[in-house]
Amino acid sequence: MIEIEGISKRYGETTVVRDVSLTIAPRTVTVIVGTSGSGKTTLLRIINRLVEPTSGTIKLDGEDNRSLPDYELRRRIGYAIQGHGLFPHRTVAQNIATVPTLLGWDRARIEAKVNELLTLFQLDPVAFGPRYPHELSGGQQQRVGVARALAAEPKVLLMDEPFGALDPIIRAKAQDDLLAIQKHFETTIVLVTHDMEEAFHLADRIAVMDKGEVVQYATPAEMLVKPATVFVESLIGAGERPFRLLAIDTVADAVEPGVAEGEAIASSASQREALSMLLWSGRKALPVVGPDGAVIGKVSLDGLAQRAAGPT
Amino acid sequence: MQLRVDKLGVIIAALAAYGALLAPFATFRANRIVAGEARSISEALPPAWAAIILFLIITTAGIAILKTPSRLRLGTAFAMIAALALGIGAAAAHLTPPENTYARVSPASGFWILLFALGLLAADALTRLRPSPLVRVLFLSAVLGFIAAVLTSGTWDGLSLLKEYASRADTFWAEAGKHLMLALGSLAAATAVGIPLGVLCHRVARLRDGLLGVLNAIQTIPSIALFGILIAPLGWIAIHVPGAAAIGIRGIGTAPAFVALFLYSLLPVVANTVVGLAGVPREANDAARGIGMTDFQRLIGIEFPLAFPVILTGIRIVLVQNIGLATIAALIGGGGFGVFVFQGVGQTAMDLVLLGAVPTVLLAFTAAIVLDALIETVTPNRNRVQSA
Asked: To which protein family does this belong (chain B) (predicted)?
């Protein structure tokens, strides 16, 4: 649990963050979205005290984040940034081992952790451990960056535009991997991005920032149905709303009784994917199969149309 | 096989032809002060020697003119330099009348022009071969080993330079020791002070401009003037600070020379430390802070290793510069190879000047090659960053 209470940050006359209060539930993904200069990165860096706030407090699991020396606090909080920030003169294994080494883990435990993380991120420890960051592709570098942030098993992971430097295909894969890893370690993630698509894909809750203030803090569905301001509405993009709404829930929530012809769709797919498949194949309904492969019903164009309709 | 002409090779061959045929190979003087008489290769060497040397020069010129493999060119250049080195020793033995200890034989302009042409040939071949740092250091060791072997074999004992050495053998090594102490000691002191100053300048932006400005100003003071400026304050310290005189601090002598060299050394060390630290990727620094390194851990673990090649480049500049500058220290009684240079100038004895100058050049050359090799070894090839 992260409790942000009345945080402000001023540089001279300029207020970068203005009286922000948010409560972030444990084991969730919270995405802070905003245009550049909205103060979102500053807010993130205040959580691990890379930036000291002018006023306000932050509590992690009820404990003030100033009760420890700043470097000890940061060793407990994962931190991953755009452009990965790997140390170019250290190998992949040494990079990942950074925080465990700072914490004084013994060598066997560090090695086991490095191997576990590399395997989890689909990098062969034997092949990739001894390589240097410049010998990796951008996607691999980014995965190592996140692995390094998770090495000391932090309860909280802060990410500043972690996927900003990746191309769209690798980015989508990296986002899915992140969600899987978040479930695996039950990490609380706070992620900063300017990409609304990314926010809707990853977030349990989204905080929209504008000129240093949080203008709305809500679940993706709430935000779509009831945007708090014109700014939030424009950020979401009026034309995208029905599709974003469908993207939030899975086909399982839209299954109707009945049968349909043709190629089936998995119940774990998003409703947006179902709509896309319906439109492309020119059918009125698709059969839906459950995780075991058995047909559990159908999803129809009319049913999805109702779900995609906004409040009247 | 088609024969093609190498442009630089033509120039090298022309130089070699001029040096071998038109310019004198050796100079003979009845004693060390009088004007010399020029001797061509055929006059300076016994007939068999002269024939061999001329034949080798023609062969070398041929290899230089045609487009030949770089390894062959390099090998030829080194072999020819070795032949010249032995040849000049033979000339000394041939020209000096028996039982005459006053006559002096020294290399003349033709010898130096040949040496220059061969140096050009070797340097050109080395540039094309791009040898690894280790190979370059091995080459250097081989050349130094050859020089040492020729010196100890007595082949050059008839040369005037070695005669000057023979009459000053003990002071030579004492001055060599002083020269090295001045150059390396001031470098060590400048490194010990300069790197922390560089770190401070990097962290405190306001200090950077001021300090680098002062060091820049010091760098513009001519060396002789700086030695002179230091006489007064160091003399004052020697008199007024208890114990200062006891550890050798005086207005003239080694102390002001050491301080001046130290001051000249500071700018390259401090400036390169600042540049090296500024070149550390911002993301790496941010990540290091963000995952909980203390400032000191970040400095030692991240910033220093990444800035090290640039700092080492500064140290290389200082070392080569100091080896040269330490010569001037002799003017204020600081010792070093400069002692022979200035004595030689005073006595118009060119050989004595060379006795100071040649070891200085050799030292600077050695230092440059060794440190360049070291810098290349520690500079990783990570400029190539793959895209996603």
From this structure: Belongs to the binding-protein-dependent transport system permease family.
To the nearest whole angstrom, how far is the Cα of A12 from the nearest Cα of chain B?
19
Is the pLDDT assigned to residue A235 strictly greater than 90?
A: no
Q: Across the interface, do B290 and A132 touch by the CB < 8 Å criterion?
A: no
Min CA distance, B82 vs chain A (Å)? 43
- Cα separation of B28 and B107, whole Å? 9
**What number of residues does chain A have?**
312
* Fold assignment, A2-242: Rossmann fold (3.40.50)
**Domain definitions of chain A by residue range:** 2-242, 249-308
- Give the C-alpha distances (Å, rounded to integers) separating B182 from A123, A203, B260, B334: 54, 66, 10, 9
% of chain B with per-residue pLDDT over 70: 97
Contacts for B18 with CB less than 8 Å, ≥ 6 apart? B110, B113
Quick check: A86 and B284 CB within 8 A?
yes
Nearest neighbour of B386 by CB, restricted to A86, A137, A145: A137
- As to burial, measured by CB atoms within 10 angstroms (0-12 exposed, 13-18 middle, 19+ buried), residue B294 is middle
- ipTM, two decimals, is 0.84
B388 to chain A, any CB pair closer than 8 A? The answer is yes
Mean of the per-residue pLDDT values for chain A?
91
- 3-state SS, residue B178: helix
Which among B284, B385, B387 is the nearest to A87, CB-wise?
B284
What's the CA angle centered on B141, arms B316 and B109, to 5 degrees? 85
CA torsion angle for A283, A285, A291, A292 (degrees, to 10)? -90
Predicted model pTM: 0.80
For chain B, which residues make up each domain, given as ranges?
7-160, 169-378
Whether residue A79 and residue B305 make contact (CB cut-off 8 A), yes or no, is no
More confident residue, B386 or B47: B47
Q: Give the count of beta carbons closer than 10 Å to the beta carbon of residue B208.
A: 19
d(CA A123, CA A136): 11
- pLDDT score at B14: 92
Which CATH number applies to B169-378? 1.10.3720.10
Task: Quote the distance between the C-alpha of residue B321 and its chain's center.
Answer: 9
Burial class (CB in 10 A: 0-12, 13-18, 19+), A241: middle
Among A75, A85, A139, the residue with its CB nearest the CB of B287 is A85
Query: Do A267 and A289 contact (CB within 8 A), yes or no?
Result: yes
Contact between residue A211 and residue A38 where contact means Cβ atoms under 8 Å apart: yes
Determine the CATH number of domain A249-308: 3.90.1280.20
A179-220 pLDDT per residue, tens:
999 999 999 999 999 988 899 889 999 999 999 999 999 999
